Amino acid sequence: MNTLPAGYRTAVVPPERLEEFRTVDQLAFAVSPDPEVERLLPFPVPLDRLMAVEAADGRYAAVHGSYDLVMPVPGGQVACAGLTWVSVRPDERRRGLLRTMITTHLERSLERGEPVSALFAAEAPIYGRFGYGSAADQVRLTVPRGAALRPVAGSERLTVRLERVDPGRHTELVEDLYVRAGAGRPGWTPRATPVLRAYTVGDPPSRRAGFEPLLLATVLDGQDVRALALFARKASWGEDGADAVVRVREASALDAASTHRLWSFLLDLDLTATVETPPLAVDDPLLHLLVDLRPTRRRLTDNVWVRLLDVPTALGARRYAGPADVVLEVTDTLLPANAGRWRLVVDAAGDAEVTRTDADAHVRLDVRELGALYLGGRSATALGTAGFVLGEGRDLARLTTTFASPLAPVCPWMF
Ligand SMILES: CC(=O)SCCNC(=O)CCNC(=O)[C@H](O)C(C)(C)COP(=O)(O)OP(=O)(O)OC[C@H]1O[C@@H](n2cnc3c(N)ncnc32)[C@H](O)[C@@H]1OP(=O)(O)O
């Protein structure tokens, strides 16, 4: 759908216009150009995945791009276009530029064979209208220093090593542990390129906001790294003494004992008062380890939003919990090929076959709700009580069970 003003057009972005692309983004997000940051952290989006809207006079009025991601889904993984850098110049807002860019993004992603798109929403109300569903929540904790953890066997014999982050030595270690720590968790998407991995450990001084240079804590079983955290402290002295903040950028652990050891270390650093966690899944082990959650501040927000671009391929890319035979009637105003009735047959192993059908629908829902359910972190019954998934209670309950994931989805880094 083209909703552009007269004379505007969609255009690919040649390398020589990257600076102009970045300028639109800086204007939209109120970000200052910073040559030092740009030197340390090169532009992360593949150039052949950038698009712009050119105004009638040829300058860029709006831009977007996408990452080439592989997103873990229950029991599998799926090629995923990670929509990003969506920016419309403030003087070009609300003239339909985003709507056209989304149409372009959906079409190009499908042409590349990506059955799913995902994003982090700068503002929550924007993307539902385009069929993106809020598929996961995240929680950030602010934990008082010294908060007690329930004991976990084997934790005490593990050791902790602390050092400054050295991107040359640590980037791949951090990514490797991140991927292994998230095994079995939907949404836990690998940083697909060296540049994205550089962002994980990147630490430009101008972005530190008073915090010390980034530190790496590794939890070791002998020489074997079992857990790690990237974090920094901001020293501060209040009326009652030292009250530094510990800000944890990333925490990955391979098992319960190393999780316990890692957080025991982070929660008891001298001269600190509070510890801020990175975005955690709503069932993260730290929430179970803390003896008393009440003094911990918890901030729950939406995490990743998912859009099914090719419904049968996307539904066939994941596994399901238990056998099912259910007919879904889907609406999709932007991608009509998804609309209509689909029969989802799940065998005893959890593998699905998805075919067109004329049979009566058990459940009726928009592609937005299907995207919300896709990672296994939402309940069809709950969405039904809110009026967004329609069907008999027993059919919604069956769909809820079939789509459920044992671990709550989350993507702990923002793309
Ligand atoms: C995945 C990411 O990259 S998220 C980053 C998004 N970017 C930003 O937040 C940067 C600052 N903001 C902007 O660049 C722009 O205002 C955008 C991208 C949010 C919106 O672009 P626009 O060109 O103004 O959107 P457009 O005119 O196509 O609007 C499409 C619809 O979305 C609605 N809409 C757009 N922005 C918002 C918003 N922030 N909140 C609620 N609704 C919105 C419009 O009202 C319109 O609604 P309609 O379908 O009922 O008519």
TrEMBL record:
<dbReference type="Pfam" id="PF13527">
    <property type="entry name" value="Acetyltransf_9"/>
</dbReference>
<dbReference type="InterPro" id="IPR022902">
    <property type="entry name" value="NAcTrfase_Eis"/>
</dbReference>
<feature type="active site" description="Proton acceptor; via carboxylate">
    <location>
        <position position="415"/>
    </location>
</feature>
<comment type="subunit">
    <text>Homohexamer; trimer of dimers.</text>
</comment>
<dbReference type="InterPro" id="IPR041380">
    <property type="entry name" value="Acetyltransf_17"/>
</dbReference>
<feature type="active site" description="Proton donor">
    <location>
        <position position="127"/>
    </location>
</feature>
<keyword id="KW-0808">Transferase</keyword>
<dbReference type="InterPro" id="IPR016181">
    <property type="entry name" value="Acyl_CoA_acyltransferase"/>
</dbReference>
<protein>
    <submittedName>
        <fullName>GNAT family N-acetyltransferase</fullName>
        <ecNumber>2.3.1.-</ecNumber>
    </submittedName>
</protein>
<dbReference type="InterPro" id="IPR051554">
    <property type="entry name" value="Acetyltransferase_Eis"/>
</dbReference>
<dbReference type="Pfam" id="PF17668">
    <property type="entry name" value="Acetyltransf_17"/>
</dbReference>
<dbReference type="InterPro" id="IPR025559">
    <property type="entry name" value="Eis_dom"/>
</dbReference>
<feature type="domain" description="Eis-like acetyltransferase">
    <location>
        <begin position="215"/>
        <end position="301"/>
    </location>
</feature>
<dbReference type="Pfam" id="PF13530">
    <property type="entry name" value="SCP2_2"/>
</dbReference>
<feature type="binding site">
    <location>
        <begin position="86"/>
        <end position="88"/>
    </location>
    <ligand>
        <name>acetyl-CoA</name>
    </ligand>
</feature>
<feature type="binding site">
    <location>
        <begin position="94"/>
        <end position="99"/>
    </location>
    <ligand>
        <name>acetyl-CoA</name>
    </ligand>
</feature>
<dbReference type="GO" id="GO:0016746">
    <property type="term" value="F:acyltransferase activity"/>
</dbReference>
<keyword id="KW-0012">Acyltransferase</keyword>
<comment type="similarity">
    <text>Belongs to the acetyltransferase Eis family.</text>
</comment>
<feature type="domain" description="Enhanced intracellular survival protein">
    <location>
        <begin position="311"/>
        <end position="412"/>
    </location>
</feature>
<dbReference type="InterPro" id="IPR036527">
    <property type="entry name" value="SCP2_sterol-bd_dom_sf"/>
</dbReference>
